[in-house]
Design a protein that fits this description.
- The protein is α/β, with parallel strands linked by helices.
- The protein has nine helices and seven strands.
- The chain has helices at about 5-20, 25-35, 60-65, 80-90, 125-135, 155-175, 180-205, 225-235, 245-255, and strands spanning about 50-55, 70-75, 95-100, 115-120, 145, 255-260, 270-275.
- The protein has a seven-stranded mixed sheet with strand order 3-2-1-4-5-7-6, sandwiched between helices.
- The chain is globular and about 45 Å long.
- The two termini are about 30 Å apart.
Length: about 280
């Protein structure tokens, strides 16, 4: 059995077509990029590095990574998503595009100087195997940057309880036809994401600490990003969450060492180096 869920792939293809990220302000995209890549060892890469973006989606990260490297392989199992990435990266000459999943990455083993997969491998049936397949493409000592949904292991019980309620809603919404998923997610963005984000921003302006509040991370993000993430969150049929300890164990099992976690949101982002 392939390590892929076709329905999930199709849904993400529709998502990136609906929200192709082309209207996101460069400053916001840069801030999002820095949040994910703050632990990535740019200074440790060799001259003219080659790497891969596993699950490139709209190509939003590749757009910022590509000027820093000699070649970037953008890989996604959704033909619809890959077309969005090609449009967003039109004019970028050092990106190669591959219609493939994590179980059939079309790159030679031990060939890449670096790789990353952000917000992807918690949507496949076997996350550990997915990480292992990514690591197999790296040269020895090559870094791999990974972001997986966290299991709220650094949050209090009341926070986890709120998530459990939201997850029950997700499980129902995710099984509906795409137009219903889209409409429901947008209602959630308007009625929950936006008010909570703005409330957190207001509280922060008063000098209050808001990092512990649900959805406070959206206080400096656009409504477009909230709409995108609401669909991402409530529209997916397959979502797995992991503790920091579980992620580290999977990375070690996949052949990574010297693992380092970002201590800031989004949780959890980690980088490791191939043995």
């Amino acid at each position: 059995m392939r390590n892929i869920d076709t329905k999930v792939v199709n849904d993400f293809g529709r998502e990136w077509s609906q929200f192709d990220q082309s209207v996101v302000a460069p400053a916001e995209l840069q801030k999002l990029f820095e949040d994910y890549f703050r632990v990535f060892p740019w200074e440790g890469l060799p001259e003219s590095p080659m790497g891969f973006d596993l699950g490139c989606g709209s190509g939003r990260w590749a757009k910022i990574v590509s000027p820093r490297v000699s070649q970037l392989h953008c890989i996604d199992p959704s033909e619809e998503a890959l077309e969005v990435a090609k449009r967003n990266l039109s004019g970028v000459t050092n990106c190669c595009f591959h219609l493939a999943g994590v179980d059939n990455i079309p790159l030679p083993n031990n060939s890449m100087d670096f790789g990353y997969s952000l917000g992807v491998l918690h949507h496949v049936p076997d996350t550990t195997e997915g990480i292992r397949n990514c690591v197999s493409k790296l040269k020895p000592a090559g870094p791999f940057l990974l972001y997986l949904y966290y299991a709220f292991d650094n949050r209090p019980l009341w926070f986890k309880a709120i998530w459990k309620v939201s997850d029950l809603i997700r499980r129902v919404v995710a099984k509906t036809p795409y137009p219903i998923k889209l409409a429901t997610s947008q209602i959630i963005a308007v009625s929950i994401y936006y008010p909570l984000a703005k409330a957190a921003r207001f509280m922060e302006s008063l000098g209050m600490r808001v990092d512990h509040l649900p959805l406070s991370s959206y206080r400096d993000k656009s409504f477009y990003t909230m709409r995108t993430d609401a669909l991402d969150r409530f529209g997916t049929r397959l979502e797995r969450r992991f503790t920091r300890e579980q992620i580290e164990e999977m990375m070690i099992e996949a052949g990574l060492t010297k693992i380092r976690f970002s201590e800031e949101a989004p949780y959890w982002v980690a980088v490791g180096y191939k043995r």
